Amino acid sequence: MSIPVLGRDSVTVLLGLVRIAASLSFVWICKRLVDIATGVLDLPLKTYVLMMVGIMLLQIICGLASTYWGAYNSIKTRNQLRLGLFAHVLNSRWNGKETFRTGDTINRLEEDIRVLTELICERFPEVIITIVQLLAASGYLLSMAPSLLWVLVILMVTAVIGSKMYFGKIRQLTALIRSEDSEVQQLIQENLLNRILVLTLFGTGNIVSRLSSLQNLITKNTITRLNYNAVARGFMNLGFMGGYAAAFLWGVYGIKSGSVTFGMMTAFLQLVGQVQRPIAGLGRQIPAFIKAVTSVERLLELEDLQVEKFHGNILFPDAPGIAVSNVSFSYADAANHFILKDFSHDFKPGSLTVLAGPTGVGKSTLTRLMLGLLRPVSGSVSLYSQNGKSHLADVDTRCNFTYVPQGNSLMSGTIRENMHFANPDATDEEIKDALRLAAADFVFDLQDGLDTVCGESGTGLSEGQSQRVAIARALLHRGGIMILDEATSALDTETEERLLDNIHKELAGSKTIIFISHRPAALRIADDVINLQ
Description:
With 533 residues, this protein is of the alpha/beta class. It has 2 domains: 299 residues, ABC transporter type 1, transmembrane domain (ABC transporter transmembrane region fold, Up-down Bundle); 211 residues, P-loop containing nucleotide triphosphate hydrolases (Rossmann fold), CATH 3.40.50. Helix content is 62%, strand content 10%. The strands form 3 sheets. It has a 5-stranded parallel β-sheet, with helices on both faces. Strands 2-1-4-5 form a 4-stranded antiparallel β-sheet, covered by helices on one side. The protein is elongated. The two termini are 58 Å apart. The mean pLDDT is 84.
């Protein structure tokens, strides 16, 4: 069982506290050793040398443990955050178009989650550890030289305030750079996925030039941010060096006056670092927190996506029908333009219906209403069985559908893996039957058969081959309704007729089939034809 994030961070803090204790003990041992060596103290030297060695070993062990645990905590937290947010995005309601572009979403799921993970696993524990270290080291120094402590604090706080003047601008630049990073991610992803189009229509020079312009803009803004960071760090370094100089001179004058021993001088120089480093560390955390705030805001935008309310699969045992009653639909960004207007039709159980009509009349929109991806503005879409059971089309009824969308829908991986996406429990025999039914038995003649690797979107197979494998994959799904959206557009007439004859002969009556097509082969076997206008 995995430890919750808060529990893992607590372990990180605990290891840090042990390191602080060891570090302060090391200062105390060094002071003692120097005072023993100079004759101020009459104590056994060997005992304190062994104690020093023991403390050094403890510091090494704690350092290794902290590094190991930090890496473990980061990977566990990052995976949990990415898994949860990815599932949230996948389950978010689809309203006709994605709210965020794919490249932007991926950038958020990768880079912004990395920054958030760093905030949770490193920044928060480090702030706690740093504050404890500052208080402990300050208390130790206060017991030895109260005035010196206040000099150090004033110098470092002044330096932090000086650097803080630039933090607002740094945050603005960080948000801008993150947005530009998303643009680069989107550009690269889209053009890699459409490389043939780039090579034949857009021209690689135009795309590379556009990428170069975006990268130049990021470089310019990054350099500006670096300049602001450099000025802020300059203030911090000035305070750090001033504090060290103050401690050194304090010790020098103290030794001269006889109020400071060499052991105390050694302790001063070590403690000044243990006071200054936490203050400087807290100052350095501010830009990191600013960067993290930007990432958190971007991730919250994904978290705000409305998720479909899934209550449980409602699976009809037979081939259900679909009753579309007076449905009107328009997309939110074109509310006055109705894709469908008062449309009604009864897709009877076990029937084969062809949806035809010119582009843009609402064929694909109608199927998305059936799938429960979209909601009608008025009217209703319901699934019903022959025994009278019915339910409005939504996410709960989507399990009844076997859907083959337009275009090439294969995923990267082997043909066998693609088939198992639809039915993880499918046997090789069931896969072969589905391939045969979809006229995709060419797979058996491939050198690697079911283990033939497909690239993204079916790369490695022809478009027609990919379509047939996609139909075979859909046939493995248990749903009693099959929707094929221009699923044979890349097939030659002979292959298309063989595929449709197979579907008609083996699935007629056992599945409700809706075929979006203008092609004669589909019209020939249809029980009903709907021409949308």
